[in-house]
Structures are given as C-alpha cells and as structure tokens.
C-alpha cells in the first residue's frame, strides 16, 4: 500500500499499526519539549469524509485543530485543550481505544510519552484533496 496516495488500493483491510507513516520534523514554533515528529497517511474518503492515519513521536507540541474524530490505536499521551466554546481547559489521557472529538479552531498541546498513532476521520475540505 502506498500510504500517500489517499486510497486503500482496493484493499478491504489494513493493519492500522503496521501501515507505514512517514514522520517529519514539526515546525520549531510548535515544539515545546523534545524533538517530536509527526506524519499522516491518507487512506481514502467515505460519504464526504476523509480518513487516514496520524502518528507523533515522543515529545510535546502545540497545534490548532481541524474538525475530526479519532481513535487511538497505539501509544500513550495527553492532549491539553485550551478553553474553547465556553468550556474550560481540559486534559484528555490518550491510550489505545480512546475515541476523541476535536473541533476546528481548538488550541491543543500534545504530550506524547509513547509514540502515538490514531485513525482519524474528518470532513472533506479542498486543502485535504
């Protein structure tokens, strides 16, 4: 499977933890501790949604989120969500099996203690195409 082509290449099943995800250095302004890297493998589309894999290595980094739902498949860490939409700041503990909903515009801080991998689902947007 070519993880960057946006398709499962006709496959009906892929091992989410064995599929290659090419990691790249994060922008220096996003890194708080360590030297974390991250990457995605787009797998396809379904009913107007994109889906794929995302992985981040050990370290701490900030991000501004897009709309998505994800399921952690491997690793461990936390995501601190800054106050958003009237809700206070909160920290989510991430382990395999965690299902999380993030909203566009959320400011987050990811602290990964064991390489974290997730399967994500997000509305199709032109910049994702």
From TrEMBL:
<dbReference type="InterPro" id="IPR008579">
    <property type="entry name" value="UGlyAH_Cupin_dom"/>
</dbReference>
<dbReference type="InterPro" id="IPR011051">
    <property type="entry name" value="RmlC_Cupin_sf"/>
</dbReference>
<dbReference type="InterPro" id="IPR014710">
    <property type="entry name" value="RmlC-like_jellyroll"/>
</dbReference>
<dbReference type="Pfam" id="PF05899">
    <property type="entry name" value="Cupin_3"/>
</dbReference>
<protein>
    <submittedName>
        <fullName>DUF861 domain-containing protein</fullName>
    </submittedName>
</protein>
<feature type="domain" description="(S)-ureidoglycine aminohydrolase cupin">
    <location>
        <begin position="45"/>
        <end position="119"/>
    </location>
</feature>
